[in-house]
Every structure is written in structure tokens, then in C-alpha cells.
Amino acid sequence: MEEAMKNYLPAIDIMMCHLGISFEQACEQLGLSQQEQQALDQLQQQQSQAN
Fold first, then answer.
1. Which domain of life is it from (predicted)?
2. Looking at residue 35, what DSSP letter applies?
3. Left (φ > 0), alpha (ψ -120 to 50) or beta: where does 39 sit?
4. How far apart (Å, rounded) are the C-alpha atoms in residues 43 and 22?
């Protein structure tokens, strides 16, 4: 599931940058559940620390 969730990160980044919405709002627009939002938030933080 983690690999599939990673596919959402570019879309969320684009929505946040170009539409000026929050991470949570982007997740809601994509129809993600609260649990999926938390998993993505953790993945995003891991990627930020790795870079």
C-alpha cells in the first residue's frame, strides 16, 4: 500500500503549490480517508528528511 500511496504525493504537491491549498485540503479533494492522509503525511515527512 505504501508504494501506491506514494503516487499521490506529486499530485498533492502540485495542488498545494498551484492552488495554494493545504495538505489536508488536497487529500480531501483526492477523496482520501483520514487514515490515508496520515500515511501520506508520514511518507512526505520521510521523503523530506531523505532529501
1. Bacteria
2. H
3. alpha
4. 16
Angle between helices 34-50 and 8-19 (to 10 degrees): 90
Is residue 2 within 8 Å of 39, Cβ to Cβ?
Answer: yes
List the grid coordinates of 47. Answer: 521523503
7-14: long-range contacts (C-beta < 8 A, 24 or more apart)?
A: 8/32, 8/40, 9/40, 9/43, 9/44, 9/47, 12/40, 12/44
What's the number of CA atoms in the CB half-sphere (13 Å) around residue 39?
13
pTM assigned to the model = 0.79
